[in-house]
Each structure stands twice: as structure tokens, then as C-alpha cells.
Amino acid sequence: MVPFIDVMLVLLIIFMVTATVITPGAINVPSAGKSQKAPDKRIDLMMNEDGQLSLGGEVSARDLTETEAIVRIKEALASNPELPVMLAADRDLRYQQVVTMMRKLREAGVQRVGLSVK
Fold it and tell me: Is the pLDDT of residue 97 over 80?
């Protein structure tokens, strides 16, 4: 008869070998596609690393608040509701701030929101 400890050691070795083969929690992240042609007219909304907003590359004495940016985007969309808004966020900005801004844009009636990437 085989001692119980020998059986347990064999089982332990089997588990240790199979554990290295199993990939724990692999996430298949989708890749971003590249459009054939960038839209001719669009609204560029920039967010820097501090979360401060600016529209279309404007450099002003003060940055826009979220409310001011939304109002100005709504004004631009009044003439063309299909106008896309490209959100360019700094890579050091928290992801939650980008998602929140995208949600606010959608709530404001923006039909097409895109993320600008390198």
C-alpha cells in the first residue's frame, strides 16, 4: 500500500505543473481601427493633464469650464447636428475624467464622439 503522503506529493507536483500552463485572467482588448479619411469639419476638444479644457486649439487666458465647453459645442452643432467632436486627452489624465466628458457630450446631444490617438 502507498503511503498517503506520497499520493499528496504527486498531486501537488501535478497542480504545480499545470498552474504554470494556465493563463490567469487574460483580457482580449480590442484594437482601435483607423478611419479611411478624417472628417473635414470637426470640433476639437482638448483636455490637458489637469483636466482643463480648450476648444479647437484655442489658447486663452483662462481655460473653459465643462459647462462653457458644452454650450459652445451645442452652438456649433445647431447648424450641423452630425458634426463630430474629437476628444484629445492627455495620456496622464485619469480615464474616469475622459469617460465622464464623453458621457456629458452624449447627454448634450453630440451624435459622434471620437477619441484622438497617436
Answer: yes
